[in-house]
Fold this sequence. Notes:
TIM Barrel; single chain; about 45% helix; 8 strands; alpha/beta; 8-stranded parallel beta barrel; globular
Amino acid sequence: MRQPIIAGNWKMYKTVQESVDFVRQLLPRIEPFGSVERVVCPTFLAVYPVAEALRGTALKVGAQNVAAVKEGAYTSQVSPAMLQGVVEYVIIGHSEARKFLHETDAEINAKIKAALEYGLKPILAVGESLEQNQAGETQAFVSGQVRAALQGISAEQMANIVIAYEPIWAIGTGKNASGEVANAIISGAVRATVAELYGSAVAGALRIQYGGSVKPDNMAEYMSQPDIDGALVGGASLKVDDFTRLVEAAAQAKGA
């Protein structure tokens, strides 16, 4: 069985002290659910203090983005070499980075390769706009994003990649795809594409998350689906009680 994975994307929330205080409060609450992999992704300013606070614990740390090069004259950027040994995961291709930072498929592919080179595990985010969804273009578009992001990635490297399907129209809007719809897209556009590229064994082992207005109240609906292995969560990961309920729901739904 694929291990469930819940990752909290804190976006631009929480000061350094708030971040450290949060994980210290969260740790004892999620301890009973060790069968679920749990990840927090603070701001870059808080990544190192949070990683230090969690050193030796089961709660893992991720970064919200990464540059595609080791070093250089790239003001404001953080390289994979700088994150090596500090975080385990890194979110790549989030729709907000695609929109506000104008990240292209080629840049996302380069970032995935750089992250893997330095021992970081990418959480690759893919998802369609409302217009694409309403036009019936979801399957083709999401499949294309997956193909472009994984150009030149080996089957062996896929073992260190998580994919998060996040329909753009559901992020922070309160709207969300139903569990059945999300599962159909994840199965047909993500897992099926990976199967075409790498074979059924690699696709079957790949963990795929859903993201987009995930809350404790609807978490069980998603986790009950056979192709959904976890969630990449924004707002609901910012409160200790909510994060705990998300993890608990994942453990219960997957019998983990």
